[in-house]
UniProtKB/TrEMBL annotation:
<feature type="transmembrane region" description="Helical">
    <location>
        <begin position="450"/>
        <end position="466"/>
    </location>
</feature>
<feature type="transmembrane region" description="Helical">
    <location>
        <begin position="559"/>
        <end position="577"/>
    </location>
</feature>
<dbReference type="Pfam" id="PF24536">
    <property type="entry name" value="NXPE4_C"/>
</dbReference>
<dbReference type="Pfam" id="PF07779">
    <property type="entry name" value="Cas1_AcylT"/>
</dbReference>
<feature type="transmembrane region" description="Helical">
    <location>
        <begin position="267"/>
        <end position="289"/>
    </location>
</feature>
<keyword id="KW-0812">Transmembrane</keyword>
<feature type="transmembrane region" description="Helical">
    <location>
        <begin position="598"/>
        <end position="615"/>
    </location>
</feature>
<dbReference type="InterPro" id="IPR057106">
    <property type="entry name" value="NXPE4_C"/>
</dbReference>
<feature type="transmembrane region" description="Helical">
    <location>
        <begin position="504"/>
        <end position="524"/>
    </location>
</feature>
<keyword id="KW-1133">Transmembrane helix</keyword>
<keyword id="KW-0472">Membrane</keyword>
<dbReference type="GO" id="GO:0047186">
    <property type="term" value="F:N-acetylneuraminate 9-O-acetyltransferase activity"/>
</dbReference>
<keyword id="KW-0808">Transferase</keyword>
<feature type="transmembrane region" description="Helical">
    <location>
        <begin position="353"/>
        <end position="373"/>
    </location>
</feature>
<feature type="transmembrane region" description="Helical">
    <location>
        <begin position="683"/>
        <end position="707"/>
    </location>
</feature>
<keyword id="KW-0333">Golgi apparatus</keyword>
<feature type="domain" description="Cas1p 10 TM acyl transferase">
    <location>
        <begin position="251"/>
        <end position="732"/>
    </location>
</feature>
Length: 754
């Protein structure tokens, strides 16, 4: 916790060479449009010497990148953006003297319009002109003492920043500047810090000391052209810090946690807090009652005979109510941790910074661990349960490392991760098609069970973390695809394996259904208008809108639009081959004859490597994303064949990866708030100053929480979604009532915000 504004202005470190990381918080990189929206109708003034002029130019380039540094060097420089009514002025006052005092005093008198932001700083000219004399330092102290009350008065209604002097690179200074030493600069800075705010007792009337530029200069002044002025990258960093200090509280960017106040609790969050509190109290009361009953009925010693008597009443089983309260009790504690990590200003957050080592070394490490925990599978069928759990597990671990390392900035890695997401959706198509095709179970119970397990955690997080459903985009994606698979197979005529075995024509009927599905997918992918109309109808719009439109949902759906169909088609072909005994799935047996197996294995390896080479040579993300939906299946199928054609490979699996695979959905969702931070834009810091130890601790807690939530979801699924149809109908009515109430309170919330 603490005041992140103070941290932003005073401390931080470089990640690599150019990325500045403030202590404890995240810095947003403002675009021109965002800077204009923040500073609309604002007046900003920079007062000082040539170093402040540098900062002025870097600042106005955030508003208009086309600006050139062509102004008078030793004079005032105005800037105005008429489209946003922004005025930014540089006023040439190289010394802290009577002239500067008079200018500042003019803003404190009468009805003169005061600047909204004032940035002041000067000292090197005083050192240079007076040859670094002690008399000049004494005069500097007197002048600052006279200016300080005026700045404090302005600070009541404006943001006032005093920029401390940056160190110089003494070896590069010209002869006329040799008297400007770091020792002298430190003395002037010390005087400024001691005098400013010394008379102010009002926290609102404080001048903010901009000291972070000193730290930045210490790392970069060696690259200076003259030993005095900072290189362009450093002054741009200073300007971005200044923009974050002022604009974050106005614009509230997700990845800009510095200077952002903690968001107030919404009505729905308050109701959720009350509910979880009551659940915890209720569970404790029931536990105490049961414990007292148990003690009363516990076997006691007969004082006369010395024999032990058995209790007359047996210990009752855990009631449904107690199990329900127990689940909500644990969930309430876990959600409190979620809120504290990513909504309260309790823990620190930092920006991501990608290096090849931060991504590939952990990948190599988990690969070694996965191979170490190799065991024999219980069955040797293609894509058996243990193998699919293993597949989900290692993919999820790679995706987690991809997110925490910030590897999305490296296009080859991004393209390969896109294949892993597509592979998860491929499994969705394969798994659900196989179940419906073999079992023929299209009952409501099955549908409700799947929907509950997929969506329970996300619905709770939407309430607790105040985020829309579409924010957790992967869950809406797999939910919609499950419903599409269900509708495709459940609609008349229902074609299942048992029926198709009696008449081969049913196979053609199913293929016709799949062709119709492919046609619909193709049409919607190239008709954005039709897609958006479908999902803009209420209540679908409440689920799939993000920032007031469904474009993000369309983009996510379109990115992997064919891969679920590919999974369904693969399942159909595989199960048909299996039924006709055209493949061998015995332990240690190759899937096909030796010749066919070798040819397919060779083609698969070549295809796998060819896709990787293509993905690694991608230069444009947009163009590669356009091709991805059609070609991602190549690497997925190649992997499946490489993993399953050799019998000895198909007969083993990694229990390490499979364990993570069983909780892969919970891992994917939980990472948003308790492993990463600021809704995945940054990294959660529980232990500052020790990056590796912090990752180990936060990862351990994160995995434990995901595992616990998986167990809670499974326990609640048995209670909320019972097998009895009449009871299930009552529960569905209760769930409908819950969502109606949620919509009502959400509407009240939106109205109060507007």
């Amino acid at each position: 916790g603490g005041d992140t504004c103070d941290y932003l202005l005073s401390s931080g470190r470089f990640l690599g060479e150019k990325v500045w990381q403030p202590h404890s918080c995240m810095m947003h990189k403002y675009k021109n449009s965002e800077a204009k929206n923040c500073l609309i109708d604002k007046h900003v003034v920079f007062i000082g010497d040539s170093r402040i002029r540098q900062l002025f130019y870097s600042f106005i380039k955030l508003i208009n990148p086309q600006v050139k540094e062509e102004g008078i060097k030793h004079g005032n420089i105005p800037f105005e953006d008429k489209s946003a009514s922004i005025k930014v002025d540089f006023l040439w006052y190289p010394e802290v003297n009577g002239s500067m005092r008079q200018r500042i005093k003019s803003w404190t008198e009468g009805s003169v319009a005061k600047p909204h932001i004032i940035v002041v700083g000067a000292a090197t000219w005083s050192i240079k002109i007076h040859n670094g004399s002690n008399e000049a330092l004494a005069q500097y102290k007197i002048n600052i003492t006279s200016i300080a009350p005026l700045l404090e008065k302005l600070a009541i209604s404006s943001d006032v920043y005093w920029v401390l002097q940056d160190p110089v690179y003494e070896d590069m200074l010209s002869e006329s500047r040799k008297m400007i030493t770091n020792e002298k600069i430190d003395a002037y800075n010390e005087a400024a810090v001691r005098i400013l705010n010394s008379s102010s007792r009002n926290s609102k009337a404080k001048v903010k000391v901009f000291s972070v530029s000193k730290l930045i200069a210490q790392e970069t002044i060696m690259k200076s052209a003259d030993g005095l002025h900072l290189p362009e990258s450093s002054r741009d960093t200073n300007a971005m810090i200044l923009m974050n200090v002022y604009c974050n509280k106005i614009m509230k960017p997700i990845d800009g946690s510095c200077c952002q106040p903690q968001p107030p609790l919404t009505l729905i969050q308050k109701i959720a807090f009350c509910f979880f509190t009551l659940s915890i109290i209720g569970y404790l009361i029931i536990s105490l009652i049961h414990r007292n009953n148990y003690r009363k009925n516990k076997s006691c010693t007969d004082l006369e005979s010395g024999e032990e008597k058995k209790p007359a009443i047996s210990i009752p089983n855990v009631s449904t109510l107690e199990m329900l309260l127990h689940c909500f009790c644990k969930l309430g504690l876990i959600m409190t941790y979620f809120y504290l990590c990513d909504r309260a200003n309790l823990f620190m957050k930092e920006n991501k910074f990608y290096t090849h080592s931060s991504f590939f070394i952990p990948i190599a490490y988990i690969l070694v661990l996965g191979v170490f925990y190799t065991e024999n599978t219980k069955e040797t069928k293609v894509l058996n349960r243990e193998q699919t759990d293993e597949w989900k597990g290692w993919m999820q671990l790679v995706i987690l490392i991809y997110h925490i390392s910030g590897a999305s900035t490296f296009l080859p890695v991004y393209m390969h991760i896109r294949v892993l997401v597509a592979a998860y959706l491929f499994q969705t198509g394969y798994g659900h098609f196989s179940y419906f095709w073999i079992k023929g179970d299209f009952g409501v119970y099955r549908v409700c069970q799947v929907l509950f397990r997929l969506n329970f955690l996300v619905v709770v997080l939407c309430i607790v973390m105040d985020r829309p459903y579409q924010f957790y985009y992967f869950v809406p994606l797999v939910t919609v695809w499950f419903m599409i698979i269900y509708a495709t197979l459940a609609v008349w005529p229902q074609i299942i394996q048992k029926k198709a075995n009696g008449n081969c024509l049913w196979h053609f009927g199913l293929l016709l259904k799949l062709i119709c599905l492919l046609t619909c997918i193709y049409f919607l992918s190239y008709s954005q208008g039709a897609f958006e109309k479908i999902f803009s109808f209420w209540p679908l719009s409440k689920c799939f809108e993000l920032n007031g439109n469904v474009y993000e949902w369309w983009f996510r759906w379109k990115l992997d639009r064919y891969v679920v169909f590919h999974g369904m088609l693969f399942a159909f072909i595989y199960l048909a081959l299996q039924k006709r005994q055209m493949i061998s799935e015995g332990k240690g047996d190759a899937l096909f004859s030796n010749r066919v197996s070798n040819v397919l294995l060779f083609i698969s390896i070549v295809s796998f490597l060819t896709y990787s080479i293509w993905a690694s040579s991608c230069k444009n993300k947009t163009e590669c994303n356009e091709l991805h939906p059609s070609v991602s299946v190549v690497q997925i199928l190649a992997f499946i064949l490489i993993r399953n054609i050799p019998g000895y490979v198909r007969s083993v699996y990694s229990s390490f990866f499979a364990w993570f695979g069983k909780i892969s959905l919970e891992l994917f969702i939980c990472q948003y708030h308790i492993w990463l931070a600021a809704d995945t834009k940054g990294i959660l810091v529980l232990i500052p100053g020790y990056p590796m130890f912090n990752v180990l601790v936060s990862t351990f807690i994160f995995v434990c929480v995901a595992h616990e939530i998986s167990q809670i979801t499974n326990d609640l699924a048995q209670i909320v979604v019972p097998k009895d149809n009449s009871t299930l109908l009552k529960r569905l009515l209760c769930i409908a009532g819950f969502f109606s109430g949620l919509h009502f309170f959400s509407a009240m919330q939106d109205q109060s915000r507007h």
